[in-house]
Amino acid sequence: MKKILITGGAGFIGSHVVRRFVNNYPEYQIFNLDALTYAGNLENIKDIEKEPNYTFVKGDITDESFIETLFQNQQFDGVIHLAAESHVDRSIEDPLAFVKTNVIGTMNLLNAAKKQWLGNFDGKRFYHVSTDEVYGSLGAEGLFTETTAYDPNSPYSASKASSDHFVRAYGETYGLPYVITNCSNNYGPYHFPEKLIPLFINNIINNKPLPVYGDGNYTRDWLFVKDHAVAIDLVFHDGKNHETYNIGGFNEWKNIDLVTVLCQIMDQKLGRTTGESAQLITYVKDRPGHDLRYAIDASKINTQLGWKPSVTFEQGLEITIDWYLNNQDWLNNVTSGAYASYYEKQYS
Ligand code: NAD
Ligand code: TYD
């Protein structure tokens, strides 16, 4: 019997990780700790909420004494840490919120794990889920490897880089058994519609403008979220302590090309004439400090752990679009209330 704390399990990626662990490891007790911020939603994990090996804990990782008490009471064997403020545009508006959750929150978890585990690290593991954005921006050529120097440009990526450094430092200084993964852009079901793909799907459905930042020639590598969850499972169980693994989709797209394909598929799905949705594309003011290109060399996790993406981008996009079209209640729920004022502020 293992007790595993997953943080941020009511969010986008966390919900897929929690679901996978609850369903695949009935012998583990899974605790999902989430503050249920605007990005957290219990609907994302409704299907597993009654499973006997699952417990939801509402709580904030920035609350030091709460985290310490939780660890004392539960004596976790492992932590998979996903809770974070995750949206670059919000980090530009409110950087301190990102320092609080992403840096201080991670510190609280590290301190609690260290306090509980120091003296006997056997069978313990602190898994920190990070992003490729810590490496900064690439030009037209090259890939991020695990040894690429950190060079974050946004308050979001700076806060994630900072937390990565602390995790590594706790490994070096106190011997904390950790693993870190740095993954590229995820997409898939339950993605909050502030990020490019779900935002644009929602806007196409509602015939709203599709706000492409700058000239649209920014490049991202896209990975289907369930393939990220598989990679996390693999690294949690088979990764080496004190190691970093890059995770990517081998799937680079310029924003404008991705949006064009998305519009074509949506035209078919919605019975619109070809080119109709693309007419919604609107070039808007660029994001400050916008990273030109992210691209991942995922050969380490591929050769050492045998991981590779299981779905093509075409398959993943199809699944994703179908999910949003079949779950418009979910979309309507998350876009009611505070979403409207966020949208107004960001895009007016
Ligand atoms: P998300 O914003 O969808 O979810 C974050 C979750 O964390 C939410 O459920 C939220 O309620 C919770 N949370 C936020 N602040 C909290 C706090 N103070 N205490 C407890 N819970 C809190 O994020 P996501 O896209 O699922 O990303 C999850 C992790 O993966 C993050 O660490 C992110 O940096 C990393 N990541 C994301 C991507 C991506 O493309 N989305 C890519 C690589 C890495
Ligand atoms: P996003 O989904 O916010 O992820 P990240 O910034 O973490 O990569 O954005 C993906 C790309 O899409 C990025 O280059 C910014 C761009 N973008 C737009 O052009 N318009 C938008 O409304 C959003 C949210 C993003």
From TrEMBL:
Its lineage reads: Bacteria, Pseudomonadati, Bacteroidota, Flavobacteriia, Flavobacteriales
Protein's name according to its UniProt entry: dTDP-glucose 4,6-dehydratase
Q: What is its EC number?
A: 4.2.1.46
Alphabetically sorted, this entry's keywords are: Lyase, NAD
Question: Which residue ranges does the record assign to the NAD(P)-binding domain?
Answer: 5-319
Q: Which reaction does it catalyse?
A: dTDP-alpha-D-glucose = dTDP-4-dehydro-6-deoxy-alpha-D-glucose + H2O
Q: Which family does it belong to?
A: Belongs to the NAD(P)-dependent epimerase/dehydratase family. dTDP-glucose dehydratase subfamily.
Name its co-factor(s). Answer: NAD(+)
Task: Name one process (GO BP) from the record.
Answer: nucleotide-sugar metabolic process
Q: Which organism is it from?
A: Flavobacterium laiguense
What Pfam families does the database record attribute to this sequence?
GDP_Man_Dehyd
Q: Top EC class per UniProt?
A: lyase
> What InterPro entries does this protein map onto?
dTDP_Gluc_deHydtase, NAD(P)-bd_dom, NAD(P)-bd_dom_sf
For this chain, one GO molecular function annotation is: dTDP-glucose 4,6-dehydratase activity
